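[step 3/7] fold_predict: job queued, chain A
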Amino acid sequence: MVSNIQLAIGLALLLGLVDYLSEGHFMRKRGPFKERLVSFAAGLSVSYLFLHLFPQVYTVVDDVPRLIFLSMLIGFVAYHAIEKLIYKYIRRDDVINDIELEHSMTLFFYHFVIGIVFLTLMRESRWDGILFLVPVSLQVIINALPHAHRFRRKWIKAFFSAAPLLGVLVALVVPIPLVIYALLLGLVAGILLFVEAREVVPRRRAESIVWFLIGVVAYGFLIGVSW
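[step 4/7] structure written:
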C-alpha cells in the first residue's frame, strides 16, 4: 500500500509536470469550457477556504496566537503590492521585464510553500492533503496568478515547475517547526483568498455563476462528508 509520504511525492511530481506542460496555454484559450472551468474552480476554492482551510488556521491559532493572521494578511497583500510598486517606481521600459521576473519568483516561492504545507497535511491526514491539493492544482492549471514569463531554456522551466516537489522534499528532510508551519499555512490562505477575491471569482458576463455554484456545492459536500 502506498504511504501518505509516497503519495505526496507522486502528486507533487504530477503537479509540477502539469505546470510544465500547461504553462500559459489555458489562459490563452477562449470558449465556454474555459469559462466554466474557471468558474467551477473558483466555487470549489471558496468552499475549501471557508469550510476547511480557515478552520484549520483557527486550530493552529491556540499555539501561535495572532501570528498566523499576520501571515494571512501578508500573503493577501504581498503579490498585489509588489506589482503595484514596480509599476509606480520603475521606468516604463523596464516594467515588463521586472514584472515577469517578479511573477516567476513569486510563483516559485508560492508553489514551493504549497509543497511544504501539502506534505505536512498529508502526514496528519491523507484526506486533508487531497482536499488542499485539488484547489491549488486547479490554480496552477488555469494560471490563476499571472504568469507572463516564458522560459527559453527547458531546464530552467523544469526547475520552476518543480517547485511543489522541491517543497515536499525539503519538508521531508528538514523538520518544520510549528511556528514556521503556521506562517506558511497563513501565507497560503492569504494568497488563496486574494486569488478568489480578485482573480478568479466570476465577475464578467462570460463567466458562469451556475458552474461557480456547482463548485461551491460539490466541494462543500465533500468537505461536509469529512466532518
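[step 5/7] annotate
The mean pLDDT is 78.
The longest helix spans residues 92-124.
exit 0
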